[in-house]
Amino acid sequence: MPQRIAVLTGDVIDSRQVRDRTRLYRLLDDTLAALVARHGGRAERFRGDAFQLALPDPRPAMTVAIALRAALIECSEPEQRWDARLAVAVGASHWHGERRLTDADDAPFVQSGQGLDTLAEGPARLSLALLDEPDDGGLDLLVRYLDDLVAGWSTYSAEVVRLNLEREYSQQALAERLGIRQPSVHKRLRAARWPLLSDTLAYLNQRLADREGRS
Known about the structure:
Elements: E1 3-12, H1 21-39, E2 42-46, E3 50-55, H2 61-74, E4 84-93, H3 107-119, E5 126-130, H4 138-151, H5 155-166, H6 171-178, H7 182-191, H8 194-207, H9 211-214
Parallel strand pairs: 4-5
Antiparallel strand pairs: 1-3, 1-4, 2-3
Helix pairs in contact: 1-2, 2-5, 5-7, 6-7
């Protein structure tokens, strides 16, 4: 029986200009492994800077996408901002966790790959396709908002977002974790638009829930 999954396909922007590719690839591997440990599924990196992640529960798909981009931005090199294009597709699949992603070829995998090709042709860096629901345009607008939000982050904003997506900290706890004062944490969260981001991701989590669970 097919199950509803999320597939995220991505690549690092301008990776050929990265001086320390070993550090970049290690960051990708570590981040993907941490996301799989937290949310389940399977991730694979290929051709150096390209990667794919399949989630058996589609609900956290956009949270995972934002967390991955936050990790890259946070670790940017001084002379180059690191970021990724990420295409997310949600739909029914026969894939299971023991099967390699490179061997999967059903609808969510195909759509996610095609979505990444489309992103490469324009300025957008994030997309979402729901294969089992019509899009009235509202979802696309929300994803464009998220994409624009992430594009404005500093490395400091990306860091506090990444930490809060791992588990939500109090501002004081974040300050202690980062070795800075609480007002500085507040400033970084405000710059990252954390309350709006958190609410938006919570809405998308609910929107991407299994259709039977939402009926």
